[in-house]
Design brief:
Length: 119
């Protein structure tokens, strides 16, 4: 069982930066693939990025490539999302998620943190 708690959201002007954190409980954190998803008002939740258990493999949706960076610190049971050059269209609730490496679907979800980018 993994419990996830996000933090770091807020209001930022376009072009600014934010860093989200996701603290995970559970001794098996280092074995999980971690991801970030987001859901804008009136839209479906979408995949943003993921990182392998070792941190060596990352995947990004096209709209955030070159602007967002996912990283993890297995010693601290924490995954991060550094967001630079933010745009108003990045406004959404951002969710941290975890899945076992053998699974396709993400099994565990945080409660979400709001990111609002003003123009």
């Amino acid at each position: 069982q993994v419990q996830l708690v996000e933090s770091g959201g807020g209001l930022v002007q376009a072009g600014g930066s934010l860093r989200l954190s996701c603290a995970a409980s559970g001794r098996t954190f280092s074995s999980y693939v971690m991801g970030w998803f987001r859901q804008a008002p009136g839209k479906e939740r979408e995949f943003v990025t993921s990182i392998s258990w070792s941190g060596t493999t990352t995947t990004y949706t096209n709209s955030v490539k070159g602007r967002f960076t996912i990283s993890r610190d297995n010693a601290k049971n924490t995954v991060y999302l550094q967001m630079n050059s933010l745009k108003p269209e990045d406004t959404a609730v951002y969710y941290c998620a975890a899945r076992a490496a053998a699974n396709v679907q993400f099994d565990y979800w945080g409660q979400g943190t709001q990111v609002t980018v003003s123009s």
